[in-house]
Structure formats: structure tokens, C-alpha cells
Amino acid sequence: MQMSSTDLNTIVVESLKELKAQSIKSMDVRHLTSVTDVMVLATGRSDRHVRALADSVIESCKRIQTKPLGIEGHDAGEWVLVDLSDVVVHVMLPKVREFYDLEKLWDIPSRTGADGIL
């Protein structure tokens, strides 16, 4: 049975909290893209911390038999992306997060009404 994006998001966020990630933000982006359901952003204090946070997410997912589709940026540690299909995790250094400002790009409320019509 496939885990829901809500449950996977909870596991990801708890994993990030355990290692003291800063400014964790989950955004439902289903109304903006068909690529993923949830985007999670988190900030690490150093490149080592960013890598450790990403590793923690990966390990937590392995425990529930969920393997990432891809991991990008792990070697540099400034911005690590962990693609879990329904949940995409971005762990960044503060300067990188501020520069790219993904919240501004992706944290856009749905324009549909309660009946689903624009």
C-alpha cells in the first residue's frame, strides 16, 4: 500500500525537526503542478548540517520502505533536494534559501472555490 502524501510529509517534517532544522515549511502545491503534492523547505546551519538533515529524511523514508527517486546537491551541501515523488524536500543554507525564495514561487493559494470552479 502506498503511503499518502500527508503521512509522508509528517514523517519528513518530524525527521527534520529531530535534527533541529530551521524554518521548516510545508506547502501543498497540487493546484500548481502535477509533479508533486507537497514541497517541504528547511534551512540548515552549515553545509554539514544540510547534508545531515537530508540524510535523516532519506533514512526515515527507508524505514517505511520509501526510496527517493532522486537526490541532488548532496556533495556540495548548499542545497540538497530529495525527491520522494509525492513530497519533494529542499534543504538549504540560509543564503541559498533567501536568494532563490522558493516560498514566493510556490506558496500560492488555490484560486478555486469550494465547488472547485475558478
Strand order within the widest beta sheet: 1-2-5-4-3
Q: In terms of structural class, how would the helical and strand content be classed?
A: alpha+beta
Whole-number mean pLDDT: 91
Count of strand segments: 5
Cα-atom Rg, whole angstroms?
A: 14 Å
CATH arch. level architecture? 2-Layer Sandwich
What percent of residues adopt helix (DSSP H or I)?
Answer: 25-40%
User: Main beta sheet: strand number and arrangement?
Assistant: 5 strands, mixed
SSE pattern, N- to C-terminal: HEEHEEEHH
Strand percentage, roughly? Answer: 15-25%
Into how many domains do the coordinates divide?
Answer: 1
3D structure, described in words:
- The chain has 118 residues and is an alpha+beta fold.
- It has one domain: Beta Polymerase, domain 2 (2-Layer Sandwich).
- Helix content is 36%, strand content 23%.
- It has four helices and five strands; from the N terminus they run αββαβββαα.
- The chain has helices at 5-18, 47-63, 94-100, 102-106; strands at residues 22-28, 38-43, 70-72, 79-83, 87-92.
- A five-stranded mixed sheet has the order 1-2-5-4-3.
- A hairpin with a 3-residue loop joins strand 4 (79-83) and strand 5.
- The radius of gyration is 14 Å and the shape is globular.
